[in-house]
Design goal:
8-stranded parallel beta barrel, globular, TIM Barrel
């Protein structure tokens, strides 16, 4: 059985010059992250622009991810969508592809009742047959999983394995842990604090750019080297702050293009792209802080 813990990269979805999914570059970024020691991937999440992708694109990404991760890293495929039917179709495809788990935001836009959220998750789990991670991201969904709501979901929905907690109430990390859930913090800058509170790991976008920083922090923490872990965390926080300044998706794509030596493209509208000047400023700031590497070897197979 797959163990869900540690450093989980919320991987980007690269696009080509025409704005279409770039499979070769996606494979390159994922392979590089695996070789850097990540424990798993959060696939087609917020950083991966999932709600701006078609079902077909999401399904193809799930298939590639399951293939590359099999036996090497945990694959957690996000299947959240505006309709339950769409989420269920993508969940079924993730299961058929061999993913290790699915993740899903609650229904959004129409302010669902607690029972509607439960019914939605039941349908998604039934379609996939996979462990489910709740995606607690109230900033974007308008739904926050409080402890009472999470208790209802855990009681009434089978196979709830954990949660990505991207909500402001840090106390819920321990409350969700006490329900038997594997809790990942969605705040990369609070990784060590979350571990000490009871989280099992971190899921965030900037760690896809330089996973060694979070992997280093996690390994130092595991061996009891808190000072060393804090040093890695402080360096990692530079990337978190840059993403807050320039935008998560645009930052991760611009810096990944430099680090991996592959053009990852721009975000898909309506997410804004960076101007050439903004990209230059962003890359310059990251390089000056010493938190991005030179381009890595290419893992893309020759055609």
């Amino acid at each position: 059985m797959t163990e869900f813990k540690g450093v989980v990269a919320a991987i980007i979805t690269p696009f080509d010059a025409d704005g279409e999914f770039n499979e070769a570059v996606f494979r390159h970024v994922m392979e590089s992250n695996i070789q850097s020691g990540v424990d798993g991937f959060w696939i087609s999440g917020g950083t991966g622009e999932s709600v701006l992708l078609t079902e077909e694109e999401n399904i193809r990404i799930a298939q590639i991810s399951a293939e590359l991760c099999r036996g090497r890293a945990a694959s957690i495929v996000h299947v959240g969508a505006l309709t339950t039917g769409s989420s269920a179709r993508m969940a079924r495809a993730a299961g058929e592809a061999g993913a290790d788990a699915i993740a899903c935001v609650p229904p959004f836009f129409y302010h669902p009742t607690d029972q509607a959220i439960i019914d939605h998750y039941r349908a998604v789990v039934d379609a996939s047959g996979l462990p489910l991670f709740i995606y607690n991201q109230p900033k974007y969904t308008g739904v926050e999983f409080t402890a009472p709501l999470m208790e209802k979901v855990v009681r009434d929905v089978p196979m709830v394995a954990g949660v990505k907690h991207s909500a402001p109430d840090f106390n819920n990390i321990r409350r969700f842990r006490d329900m038997g859930l594997a809790v990942f913090t969605g705040s990369g800058s609070l990784f060590l604090s979350a571990l000490m509170t009871g989280a099992v790991g971190v899921v965030d976008g900037p760690l896809t750019v330089e996973p060694e920083l979070w992997v280093g922090a996690y390994r130092a923490y595991q061996r009891g080297d808190i000072t060393g872990a804090q040093e890695f965390q402080c360096r990692a926080n530079v990337l978190i702050d840059l993403a807050a300044r320039y935008g998560m998706q645009a930052t991760c794509k611009a810096l990944s293009s430099v680090v991996f030596g592959q053009d990852c493209g721009d975000p898909r509208l309506p997410i804004p792209s960076l101007s050439a000047e903004e990209k230059s400023d962003l890359i310059g700031a990251a390089q000056a802080a010493g938190v991005i590497r030179t381009p890595q070897p290419t893992f893309v197979e020759d055609e």
